Amino acid sequence: MRRAAASRAALAVMMLTLVVLRETAPPVLAQAKADGAPEPATGRTAKKPVYASRFMVVAANPHAVRAGLEILRGGGSAADAVIAVQLVLNLVEPQSSGIGGGAFALYWHARSRKLVTYDGRETAPQAATDDLFRDGTGKLLPYRTAVRTGRAVGVPGTVALLWRLHKTHGRLPWVRLFQPAIRLAEQGFKVSPRLHGLLRDAFFLRRRAATRAYFFTAAGQPLPVGFLRNNPAFAATLRLIAKQGPNGFYRGGVARDIAAAVRAAQPWPGVLTEADIARYAVVARRPVCAPYRRWRVCGMGPPSSGGLAVAQILGQLARFDLGKLRRQAASYHFLIEASRRAFADRNRYVADPKFAPVPVRRMLDPAYLRRRARSIDPARAGGRATPGRFPVKKGALPGRGRSLEIPATSHISIVDGDGNGISMTTTIEAGFGSGIMVRGFLLNNELTDFSFRAARAGGPVANRVEGGKRPRSSMAPTMVFDQKGRLVMVTGSPGGSRIIGYVAGSIIAVLDWKLNAQAATDLPRVLSRNGPAEVEKGAPTALIEALRALGHKVRLARMTSGLHIIRRLPDGRLEGGADPRREGIALGD
Ligand code: GLY
What we know:
The structure is a single chain. The protein is an alpha+beta fold. The protein has 20 helices and 23 strands. It has a 7-stranded antiparallel β-sheet with strand order 1-22-21-17-16-9-8. The longest helix has 21 residues, at about 330-350. Bound molecules: glycine.
């Protein structure tokens, strides 16, 4: 039966129009206005792969990358470097991540050959209930309203995560890692074209005094490109955390101000308390690892759906020879179909494992993934996939979740001189988070990653709001290892639930299509979240037509991925690529 299916696949592939995609990047995407997403595209910059022999940093802004490099040159580890990078990103890319948000990190400790994953996800206040996003009459708040409210703010996890990384893997003094960000916050940084472009559409930031004063001129215009923006309030916050460690954030004046700002945010104040903030704890979790051809791909487990979904997609694709198919429509067809099946499972089963047991082992069972892959018709789009059936313990009945995820996040990839690596995806959720600014930084709106609806016909929704729970994420910081267990690739991206497709695509581009790290980030994005086939605007028309000929409903969209890839080459050198859709760079020595 397997042979019959394989020959059907071969026949279908032969029948397909052979659409070989060009190695070159698609045409420059036009300067984009908000495409229904608060962190839209702001242009495209051609980039070349970067090579280094010792260490490398790839992140979303040159200031941040240089800060990481400064730390590595000073003898710091990958953990030290990521702290400096994150703090500078908070300042220069405030729309995407920062100490007011949360993050997931994979850390590879080369000498002990140990991979650890850390969950620094935001957490719902204890008093949050499943009517968090309902108004006084019981009606659900529209998503666009909910994202800019106090209700949406979870306890931030990033500072605790950075502290944990430093305690476990750091080498340089904690205070030293704050210097680049404090320096830049005091001296000022030039507003970048991307930040300026995003401010033009961020009307909600004009409504609150703190963000209006910080991001706009006295005349109410977005700060122009090149404006020297300093942030003494943020510098003071950083000095406090540098001196007191996490207590400088989770206890005392900063915590008090966070709770007060959330509870005062009108018209929909939140329920966050100082006690919620003081209670925050990072969780070290078992990585989600699965074989992919001759490699092993590892990612973040629940409450992120990222690692599981990427592993499920790749596990199904192992049945198809994407290396031989190259970048023909057939490869993308298989990718879209495998993604549909992975998203069906993700949407139904993945949530905070402390509240809803996630059937991780069953979802990654190779026999199950083979069965899922066999259900893919090589010659025809299959439509919406249904989730696999797994027994779930009483009291944790899954139901279809409904949560909108809008892209605004950042990814940091680092390999240090000892071969240690970090893959960290970090977020304040939708662009500029909740828009609530405290002591120079923005608070997240991560709780909108929960399902707004608590129940559906199938029962209670796994990802419903509950006090002390972490919302499901799609963030997929990823590492790939070779047969000898050596780290060969670090990847990850922002992009809401499209992250999963971006990351899976980057792995296929590097491992199957043998593209360099830069070419892998340049490729047009193609994915599915169990709806239509989503194809990046600017992708070759021949590809779009070939997918339509296979029966796919194709939706063209602007896709602001931010893939940051490091590859270890067979000769030992590091190769870095930064997504042309954002302002990131790769640098190394
Ligand atoms: N807020 C984006 C994510 O966690 O997937």
